[in-house]
Design a protein that fits this description.
The complex is a heterotrimer of chains A (505), B (147) and C (405). With 505 residues, chain A is α/β, with parallel strands linked by helices. Chain A folds into two domains: 87 residues, Alpha-Beta Plaits; 335 residues, Alpha-Beta Barrel (TIM Barrel), CATH 3.20.20. Chain A is built from 15 helices and 23 strands. The relative contact order of chain A is 0.15. Chain B folds into two domains: 83 residues, 2-Layer Sandwich (Alpha-Beta Plaits); 57 residues, Alpha-Beta Plaits. In chain B, the strands form four sheets. In chain B, strands 1-8 form a two-stranded antiparallel sheet. Chain B has a two-stranded antiparallel sheet with strand order 2-3. Chain B has a two-stranded antiparallel ribbon with strand order 4-5. In chain B, β6 and β7 form a beta hairpin. With 405 residues, chain C is α+β, with helices and mostly antiparallel strands. Chain C has one domain: Aminohydrolase, N-terminal nucleophile (Ntn) domain (Glutamine Phosphoribosylpyrophosphate, subunit 1, domain 1), CATH 3.60.20. In chain C, a hairpin with a 2-residue loop joins β13 and β14. The longest helix of chain C is centred in the last third of the chain and has 16 residues. The radius of gyration of chain C is 20 Å and the shape is globular. Classes of the chains: A alpha/beta (505), B alpha+beta (147), C alpha+beta (405).
Chain lengths: 505, 147, 405
């Protein structure tokens, strides 16, 4: 076997003064970086396989470990960086496609950071959400353009308008689609429980809904994706809403692949496929080759759910996203979810993840504008997703025009994810993106749900503070209210697409 | 009485409970000193048992009819009928290891330093068992036993 | 020197503090403008001389079925250009210079002219199911957007807006309002914080027979504007007030919501309040809130809306700006300050502070007698009221609404 050229990406520094040879690191590293040598009573390490997940450093009781990013120092070159060179080494050794996980990590700019929020001074009192009402309740679903009343009744007017089914959220934040299979049973349970406890929704992803999770159905949006895993009438019935997954921001135009090793008994039941078989989601739905095909599926699902559940359609933000979204709304979707190019994934070809799609900031602005121009903005709610890192990002997205956002990566980080981006190896040391029974037990769903609820509470409170500063006490008045946004460091073209003024204007 | 309950579905075999138990019963109460200077003399009174992916921590169960108390010839082991706790008095212990022989869960160990037995004392000194306080995954919890 | 009357649309949202006052005779008894001038003058310190204005209903009884267009011009060229457009669209039944009383206190006046018109039948053929009102809206928007120095600031039937740069009492004198007889008067004194005083930028803001005077800042302006855009309303003036007028037009005239329901859509109860409503109203309030989220007016405001059939006053739902109501006989008064009411009404029978989000409504008791059958039919077609008692069980309709009934 020839010598491998790929070098270690991380340095493991062990302070011998602090190491007590307790071997917690040895037992916790699924990549076998640490080992105990009984003869010398020393813990040793092999850095080559370290992924930088920080599990050992976090659990080390004496803080003896420091994991440092230490890419090999090749001759300085701005084009041929060590990442580029190492990737070529990898491909030269394997002939394979480079894989990555989580969201695009190469984007230098987050446009959210170039957008600033407004606050009231003098002419308009700011509001203190601790002392005054501040409303985040959000309704997702189709709304009519007008409310019609009946006046026949002597006792007063009654509603002639019957609302389409709505999802009611206590805060405009939901957990994005992460399937059982991509994430562990315990991670899935944490998300479902947190959604229920906080009054919002978790998305099942495309891997079905295990019967154990059916009680969480009222807080679940279930996906129907190109693989149709786990889809039957019960699946549709237990959920609060159904989402047709067309694409994903991390890998627009690409399907999915859950390796057979991960398909154990429980996942096999959930996905309705044999144990050990690969779960392949084709790139397109093979019954949707056009917008009119999509309309058929939307209405099939509406019929199946007796028109009692909103139907969502999720697409990746691609170049002509506004026109596509308009078509989706006209095809009858109640919710359109747009996933930007920084959206996460359990596994995607690196080149696709880093180069395909457009940022959610522009996609969202374009979609909201387009739907308003066509007078159909009321017909569907718009959910933005793809790389929301903080409550400020959420506020900016809502002011740009989103009804709500999906958070995926942020939710996983709350569960302990350290963004090592190695989900696809199935060796997640944090028990999140793995099915290995030795690893999955590391995530106690009781702790997980608690941490997620805390995150939602913290973000919601921050959203209320920011709204209060603007003198707004209902989320409806923030939604699409671009007057409260100003751009810094953006070109005129960027400002005009975002539909916002420059700071100082 | 209060009992330490192990949730085997969330025990991840890190064995930090053992580390903190040992420190809790050390002279220095300092992680590094306890391991550097006292290891070998003192032992953790909790042990993580593992088979394949499944593991859980075992310590004295404070049995209702403790075999160790029956077997103890000096009365060093004693069950407090009021609280249900099984306590060990090292002053009386002569190190005959009968208790070690009869304990059904293997929860009593030999503390080589004092040549006496050592077992879980629920960290009476601090109030909260160190293993429970330091379990990173809440796989060890204190539960009130109403029996 | 800069001409203050030159048409200048601000590039950013207009915010201003203000005084508002309105009075109405529910029996339709005409009143001269003398009282309303005294009332608004009482609140002199609430304005800063950069804008004042009035709306008066019932002032053109002979021309009551014609749309009265009040137009301001920078120059005679603009007048000719505008008149070309008007004559293409409309049959003109009369036109004249708006009479004024020159005053040292009112400077830089534009050319002020009014026209009494109807849309020509052949022009109506260009429309589909729209009414003559919609055509007038189109005409007003066309002139205001296309003519460099022409601005239509009033376009209703049997009503008119009179406004300009100056203190409101001086503007009232300037327009000789003591010579007009109206059954509804509303007025406004302006305290702008960020716009140059432009005659067209003063309140009331008016479209068709809607007139709005407004004190406050709408922090939801950005979305209200885009929401209206959805329905074809172009907000070019960058004033909060414009948005309120269009929302009333949309909700009441086009969507046929009763005033109470329209106000509830614009200032809905908080969710916990809403949950406590009786079931029928709860479902209605909930649906209105869900459907009209984009029409919710947020931020501090008190507003008086005039229309041919009456006057509506309402506040933001947390009541961050003042609004006092009073009644004596058939007269209903609404103003920013109680003093402005007592200035013109010695011993009101009842005086109350409007509750947040709860409209105060005043209506013509017998509209046919006052505004004639055609206008009454139009009023009925464009606006409806809830049957008496329909909202009475409502806790939030409460005291204020009951006092006016």
């Amino acid at each position: 076997m020839s010598k491998r050229l790929v070098q270690a990406e991380f340095n493991v520094e062990r302070d011998p003064e602090r190491c007590i040879q307790c071997q917690v690191c040895v037992r916790q590293c699924s990549n076998q970086v640490h080992a105990y040598d009984a003869e010398s009573d020393q813990v040793t390490c092999d850095e080559a396989s370290c992924v930088g997940c920080q599990r050992c450093a976090t659990l080390c009781p004496t803080n003896a470990l420091t994991i440092k990013k230490a890419p090999p120092e090749f001759a300085p070159d701005n084009n041929w960086t060590s990442d580029v060179i190492q990737n070529i080494y990898r491909q030269a050794e394997t002939g394979g496609v480079l894989l990555s996980a989580m969201g695009n990590d190469t984007a230098k700019v987050s446009w959210w950071d170039n957008i600033l929020l407004n606050a009231s001074q003098v002419t308009n009192p700011s509001i203190d959400p601790l002392r005054e009402p501040m409303e985040l309740t959000t309704f997702l679903g189709a709304k009519p353009n007008a409310v019609e009343l009946n006046f026949d009744d002597q006792g007063g007017p009654s509603l002639a308008t019957k609302l389409a089914p709505q999802l009611v959220l206590s805060t405009p934040i939901m957990f994005s689609a992460m399937s059982y299979g991509a994430i562990s049973y315990n991670a899935f349970e944490s998300l479902a429980r947190a959604a229920g406890q906080y009054g919002t929704f978790a998305n099942s992803g495309e891997g079905g809904l295990h019967k154990d999770f059916w009680p969480h159905g009222p807080n679940m949006i279930v996906q129907v994706a190109s693989g149709r895993f786990g889809v039957d009438i019960d699946y549709l019935k237990v959920a609060a809403a159904v989402e047709i997954k067309i694409g994903q921001g991390a890998k627009p135009g690409i399907g999915g692949h859950l390796p057979g090793e991960k398909v154990d008994e429980r996942i096999s039941q959930t996905r309705m496929i044999p144990v050990g078989s690969d779960a392949i989601s084709p790139a397109p739905h093979h019954d949707i080759y056009s917008i009119e095909d999509l309309r058929q599926l939307i209405y099939s699902l509406k019929e199946a759910t007796r028109y009692q559940k909103p139907i969502s359609v999720k697409i990746a933000a691609v170049h002509n996203v506004a026109a596509i979204a308009s078509g989706i709304v006209r095809a009858g979707a109640d919710i359109v979810a747009i996933d930007g190019y920084k959206g996460g994934t359990g596994a995607a070809p690196t080149m696709i993840r880093n180069n395909v799609g457009i940022p959610i900031e522009f996609a969202l602005a374009a979609v909201d504008d387009r739907l308003r121009q066509e007078g159909i903005r009321n017909q569907a709610s718009v959910v933005a997703c793809g790389g929301f890192r903080s409550s400020a990002d959420v506020v900016k997205a809502i002011a740009l025009g989103a009804d709500a956002v999906y958070i995926g990566t942020a939710a996983l980080v709350a569960l302990g994810c350290h963004l090592c981006q190695k989900c696809y190896t199935g060796k997640c040391n944090w028990g999140i993106a793995t099915q290995d029974p030795y690893l999955t037990r590391r995530l106690n769903p009781e702790i997980g749900a608690r941490r997620l609820v805390n995150l939602l509470r913290g973000w919601s409170h921050e959203i209320k503070e920011m709204m209060g500063g603007m003198g707004i006490n209902a989320i409806e008045s923030l939604r699409g209210n671009r007057e409260h946004l100003r751009g810094v460091g953006l070109s005129d073209r960027e400002l005009s697409i975002l539909g916002i003024k420059a700071a100082g204007e | 009485m209060k009992r330490i309950v192990a949730k085997e579905e969330y025990c991840m075999n890190c064995r930090l409970c053992e580390v903190y138990c040992l420190v809790s019963h050390s002279r220095s109460k300092d992680l590094i000193k306890a391991f550097r200077q006292e290891r070998g003399e003192i032992v953790p009174r909790i042990t993580v048992e593992r088979l394949g992916p499944v593991s859980f921590a075992v310590q004295c169960r404070h049995c209702d009819e403790p075999a160790c108390v029956e077997a103890c010839m000096t009365g060093a082991l004693h069950r407090d009928p009021a609280t249900g706790e099984v306590t060990h008095d090292p002053q009386r212990c002569v190190g005959c290891w009968m208790c070690v022989m009869v304990c059904p869960t293997g929860a009593i160990r030999r503390d080589r330093n004092g040549h006496v037995a050592a077992k879980c004392d629920l960290c009476l000194e601090t109030g909260t068992p160190a293993c429970v306080a330091n379990c990173p995954n809440e796989a060890l919890v204190i539960e009130e036993d109403n029996d | 020197m800069r001409l203050l009357h030159r048409k200048q649309f601000p590039t950013s949202k207009d915010i201003s503090g203000c005084a508002i006052s309105g009075m109405m005779s529910e029996t339709g008894t005409p009143m001269s403008g003398e009282a309303i001038i005294r009332s608004i003058a009482n609140m002199h310190d609430r304005s800063n001389g950069l804008g004042g204005g009035f709306a008066a209903y019932g002032i053109y009884p002979e021309m009551r079925d014609r749309y009265a267009l009040h137009v301001m011009y920078d120059a005679m060229d603009d007048k000719q250009e505008t008149e070309r457009i008007i004559s293409r669209w409309c049959t003109v039944y009369g036109d004249e210079t708006i009479p004024t009383r020159p005053s040292a206190l009112v400077r830089h006046r534009p050319i002020l002219h009014r026209y009494f018109v109807n849309i020509k039948p052949e022009v109506m053929e260009r429309f589909c199911d729209e009414t003559e009102d919609d055509a007038i809206v189109d005409l007003v928007m066309t002139i205001n957007a296309d003519v460099q120095g022409g601005f239509v600031f009033s376009s209703g039937k049997n009503m008119g807006v009179f406004k300009g740069v100056g203190f409101p009492e001086d503007i009232g004198e300037f327009y000789r309002l003591d010579e007009y007889q109206a059954y509804i008067w509303t007025s406004h004194g302006r305290f702008p914080t960020n716009t140059t005083g432009w005659w067209g930028g003063a309140h009331p803001f008016s479209l068709l027979d809607w007139s709005v005077v407004h004190n406050g800042e709408i922090s939801s302006y950005g979305i209200n504007k885009r929401y209206l855009d959805n329905f074809g309303y172009k907000c070019t003036l960058h004033t909060d007030t414009e948005v309120i007028a269009y929302l009333f037009d949309l909700l009441v005239r086009k969507h046929r919501l009763p005033f109470e329901a329209a106000c509830m859509a614009m200032a809905p109860p908080f969710w916990p309040q809403l949950e406590r409503l009786p079931e029928v109203r709860r479902e209605l309030a909930r649906t209105l809130r869900i459907v009209y989220g984009g029409a919710l007016l947020n931020g501090p405001f008190s507003v008086l809306v005039g229309h041919a059939g009456g006057m509506v006053g309402f506040n933001d739902r947390t009541k961050l700006r003042p609004m006092v109501g009073a009644r004596k006989g058939d007269m209903v008064y609404m103003a920013s300050e109680e003093g402005a009411i007592r200035e013109v009404c010695n011993d009101p029978e009842v005086v109350w502070h409007a509750a947040g989000g709860v409209p105060i409504m005043a209506h013509l008791k017998e509209p046919e007698k006052v505004i004639g059958p055609e206008a009454t039919a139009r009023l009925k077609a464009h606006s409806c009221r809830l049957p008496a008692g329909a909202w009475q069980e409502a806790p939030r309709a409460g005291r204020a609404a009951a006092s006016v009934q």
